[in-house]
Amino acid sequence: MIINMRIIELNESTKNNILENLLKRSPNQYREYEDQVAGIISDVKKRGDEALFEYSLRFDKATITKETIRVTEEEIAKAYEQIPPSTLDVIRKSIHNIEAYHQKQKQYSWFDSEPNGVILGQKVTAIDAVGVYVPGGKAAYPSSVLMNVLPAKVAGVRRIAMTTPPGADGNVNPGTLVAAKEAGVTEIYKVGGAQAIAALAYGTDSIKKVDKIVGPGNIYVALAKKAVYGNVSIDSIAGPSEILVIADETANPRFVAADLLSQAEHDELASSILITTSESLAKKVSDEIDGFLEVLNRSEIIRASLDNYGYILVAKNLSEAIDTANEIASEHLEIMTKNAFEVMTKIKNAGAIFIGEYSSEPLGDYFAGPNHVLPTNGTAKFFSPLSVDDFIKKSSIISYSREALFPVYEDIVTFAKAEGLTAHANSISVRFENDEV
Ligand code: NAD
């Protein structure tokens, strides 16, 4: 199957057309589902478990009851028997790398004390209970379990409740169960979609409410997370996957083509873009893509994705390539050029940056250690990858002795009065109504 990927000269006008086209992929384009999602959420709030069981039957064709909604230790033990030992082995190796990387992100409480009796500080506390949504439906995502659960565990979250839709037989994918057990999930529930998000946000008899919900899912899941935000915290809303490769004439066209295809296979809305300073590389990459398509499984999805959002752009020079990459702010950015680390220093906006020709994107999806939950759709301009920070919160610490407060109390009274808040002023001055220290 030949695709003949578009090779386009990069200029202001082609860049603007591409930026506009990419924005069509935003989850904000799916407002028509909002009413349905709001209906499911209010039904779960009203009828609790009964609503969950009904929706599981309707959408997942699964009969779930109070007795079967929570995955048992026996089911988990059976899952270990169902997966190949090599899968368990790689799950454990990945956990090792992901934990080691996230340990480095940990933040600690700090306290500063002055000799005059002022103590100021910041206390770091893990969020108490987190819900992790793991998509079920069409595929299994053990890597998604690890990437969402492990930062929470490293942060010190006490309760990690996972929900995932069951198959029609009422079972959950064994790879998902094993990954959850290995990562330290404390409870697993068989429920998917907007109803799962509602249960985590408001609680039912079977599923206790959590404080924060993370994890990817389809449009029903994404809109439900948006709808419950405020009652609980959420991570960002993930859009379709994307890759941008910056390459010069030194890049290996086979590697570049393979990496573009690795994202295109996700779904029809995924975006794969090459920006190169070499017209000859552009042509070679296009040919390699056609060659690979003969042997890859998901060629229909890849063809649609490349047709919709795939581009090979030829830039006048490296600095034009870098500026455009910064404007697109891709989820994944690969640099395959001379002096790739120097190019990296000029990248301002990207979810994850892969440097050099042996750092292909799936290395980050599964194994290297950094989180694969990344900002999409240009949001790398202001969002960061999922991290330990998403599972902690901070409290400010303030302690003044009488000796520390006395010399400054009139300043504070003056400020409070300037705002017309006499009770504020009073709560300071009352402490010195009998004056001296
Ligand atoms: P899912 O678990 O997200 O959705 C399945 C649920 O959707 C069902 O349980 C059902 O409750 C609900 N649903 C289905 N049809 C419905 C309808 N007509 N009305 C109301 N609710 C309905 O699984 P999925 O559908 O396979 O989607 C998985 C998504 O997650 C994909 O879009 C995939 O790309 C994405 N994903 C993203 C990442 C990432 O890291 N960004 C990782 C893995 C998966």
- Strands of the biggest beta sheet: in what spatial order? 1-11-10-9-12-13
- N→C terminal distance: 87 Å
Number of domains: 3
Arithmetic mean pLDDT = 95
List cofactors, ions and other ligands: nicotinamide-adenine-dinucleotide
Q: Give the percentage of residues in beta strands.
A: 15-25%
CATH class of the largest domain: Alpha Beta
CATH topology of the largest domain: Rossmann fold
Q: Looking at this structure, what is the CATH superfamily of the largest domain?
A: Nitrogenase molybdenum iron protein domain
The major β-sheet equals: 6 strands, parallel
Which regions contain 5 or more consecutive residues with pLDDT less than 50? none
The coarse overall form would be: globular
CA-atom Rg in angstroms:
26 Å
**How would you name the oligomeric state of the polypeptide chains in this document?**
single chain
Q: Helicity level, as a percent range?
A: 40-55%
Work out the helix count: 18
Assign the structural class, choosing from mainly alpha, mainly beta, alpha/beta, alpha+beta, or little secondary structure: alpha/beta
CATH architecture of the largest domain: 3-Layer(aba) Sandwich
Number of strands: 14
